[in-house]
Amino acid sequence: MSLRHSYTLFAPIYDVLVAPFTRAARRQSLRALHDELPAEVLLVGIGSGLDLPLLPRGPRYTGLDLTPAMLTRAQRQAAVLGLDLRLDTGDARQLPYADACFDVVVLHLILAVTAHPQQVLAEAARVLRPGGRVLILDKFLRPGQKAPLRRLLSPLLARLATRTDVEFEPLLAAQPALTLLSDRPALAGGWFRCIVLRKVGGP
């Protein structure tokens, strides 16, 4: 089953399953937008729009997702909130945007979902302006962490919704244009983390 198919099936119940568990962590991650208002923000894997009520007014927002059913829900959410939001269908591994056109890229619960997190992070770096930030909320194993159950279940869960064996540090090491600003535990005893990266070449 493809991720697009899986999330099309999950769309009607996604908010009920995910929103209560992740809202506080999303708010923690997106606080960076309130502290330093950017001009252009890209939300990769925007899904049903769970981040939208937590966004500050002012920036121009673009949301991208692989699943039209999720984008339909995000569009409804944006209309209710009166949020100025452009929505695009697309693949996070090949973003349909020019180089260096966003001030912030938000990657919430996407790096551990895709089978190619290296490509997703590389694309985020490509479309980010120098000095721009990447805001990440996701579940990552620590380097060398055994976590045998998570590693065992990952191949099965990856077919349905998400991976449980992704390590963040190797992903960052492969992106010399990105530097770590902060890395804080968010949920599940630190399995979920709020991470902020900055693209070198700016302030």
Residues in helix, %: 25-40%
Rg from Cα: 16 Å
Broad shape: globular
**Average of the residue pLDDT scores:** 84
Descriptive notes:
This protein is of the alpha/beta class and 203 residues long. Helix content is 38%, strand content 26%. The protein has helices spanning 3-35, 68-81, 117-127, 148-160, 168-173, and strands at residues 40-44, 60-65, 85-89, 102-108, 128-139, 178-187, 192-199. Strands 3-2-1-4-5-7-6 form a seven-stranded mixed β-sheet. The model is unreliable at 5-11 and 153-160 (pLDDT under 50).
Main attributes of the structure:
203 residues; alpha/beta; Rossmann fold
Summarize the structure.
The chain is of the alpha/beta class. The chain is built from five helices and seven strands; from the N terminus they run αββαββαβααββ. The chain has a single domain, classed as Vaccinia Virus protein VP39 (Rossmann fold).
Helices and strands in order, then pairings?
Blueprint: H1 3-35, E1 40-44, E2 60-65, H2 68-81, E3 85-89, E4 102-108, H3 117-127, E5 128-139, H4 148-160, H5 168-173, E6 178-187, E7 192-199
Parallel strand pairs: 1-2, 1-4, 2-3, 4-5
Antiparallel strand pairs: 5-7, 6-7
